[in-house]
Design goal:
With 339 residues, the protein is an alpha/beta fold. It has eleven helices and twelve strands. Helix content is 40%, strand content 16%. A six-stranded parallel beta sheet has the order 2-1-3-4-5-11, with helices on both faces. The chain has a six-stranded mixed beta sheet with strand order 7-6-8-9-10-12, sandwiched between helices. Helix 4 (69-83) packs across helix 11 (292-307). The longest helix is centred in the middle third of the chain and has 17 residues, at 191-207.
Length: 339
């Protein structure tokens, strides 16, 4: 005999949806809750309950390299939120030197994983787009995407508003008297770089300051990339730098010192991500902090909905927080290229 959902739900003090997940052996239910539902069903004399799921209960978390602290933060936060829902998170770092993202995705599909969360995946390159992910979804692998979203996403996703974030950084520098602002961005094949450029351009035009292609440095997302990319900006006589992540911003601070200047006396620097490690830069970094935990919680909820067949193709957008440190200040002088 199959139990009546409403009857079991009332006695177990859970929703009917939770009872359905337990009854069908689906992940997304805390173990204590699952046991309580099964106990109630046993007390009611029901025995016809599936003993296992068609899925493994494993959830994949695929990130780029974990050397970037923000990806480690997302991995840790996602693990916490997914585990609390009765899932077994497995973190995979996809790089050119290890296993690539597509191989991980196909592995999770072939092993009947419950679902996958992808952070800043290859979809962030518009020429690749969403099609490979939609194909996997259509084969039965629930997917949720975090960041790197361009155009309307056909899959559930969460993203930080990069255009608004960059505009906020520009406004902060303008209030301090800066009029020539440089950008340290990643390769232009990524939608994140395009969004930051657009945010800077729109804000600069509105505020009557310079932020154009002549003072944008395209580099790699590392400390060394920030160092190398800042040389072009310093030669252009900028007084403020907005970096695509905190590591690049730390590299920019190092580059300014290498030119004989100081931050913020000669050049102000703003990072992005708000990773805890950046609290230890000297001076303490001004940065745009991503709400990693709230984004991870939202992504976890979206994945559970997708696993339950209730997923919708929506993108939840989150605003970053400008955290003002000591790496930004009023304009005092333009750093001379003669250093």
């Amino acid at each position: 005999m199959r139990p009546k959902l409403a009857e079991v739900a009332q006695l177990a003090d859970v929703s009917e949806a939770t009872v359905s997940r337990v009854l069908n052996g689906r992940p997304g239910v805390a173990e204590a809750t699952r046991r309580r539902v099964l106990d109630v069903m046993g007390d009611l004399g029901y025995r016809d309950v599936p003993s296992r799921s068609n899925t493994s209960g494993v959830v994949g978390i695929i990130t780029p390299e974990l050397e970037n602290p923000v990806f480690a933060l997302f991995a840790q936060s996602l693990q916490t939120h997914l585990a609390s829902r009765g899932m077994l998170p497995v973190v995979c770092s996809a790089t050119s030197e290890t296993v690539n993202e597509q191989d991980y995705l196909e592995h999770f599909l072939s092993t009947h994983a419950a679902g996958v969360v992808v952070v800043n995946g290859r979809y962030s390159q518009p020429e690749i787009g969403y099609e490979p992910y939609v194909a996997l979804r259509d084969q039965g692998l629930p997917l949720v995407l975090i960041n790197g979203i361009h155009a309307p996403s056909p899959l559930p996703a969460v993203a930080v508003d990069l255009k608004a974030a960059t505009a906020s950084a520009v406004r902060h520098l303008v209030t301090l008297g800066h009029r020539r602002i440089g950008m340290l961005i990643g390769p232009m094949r990524y939608s994140t770089s395009l969004d930051m450029m657009e945010g800077c351009r729109v804000a600069a035009t509105r505020l009557g300051v310079e932020c154009d292609e002549s003072i944008v440095s395209e580099t790699v997302f590392t400390f060394e990339g920030g160092q190398a990319g800042s040389a072009q900006l310093l030669e252009a006589g900028i007084t403020g730098i907005i970096a695509a992540n905190d590591l690049m911003a730390a590299g920019a601070i190092s580059a300014v010192r290498g030119w004989g200047g100081e931050v913020p006396d000669d050049v102000s620097v703003i990072g992005f991500d708000g990773t805890p490690a950046m609290s230890y830069t000297a001076p303490k970094l001004t940065t745009l902090r991503q709400p990693v935990d709230r984004m991870s919680a939202a992504a976890s909820a979206l994945l559970v909905d997708a696993i339950d067949g209730n997923g919708v193709s929506q993108t939840q957008v989150f605003a970053p927080e400008l955290v003002v440190g000591r790496s930004t200040g009023t304009v005092k002088q333009v750093l001379s290229t003669e250093y």
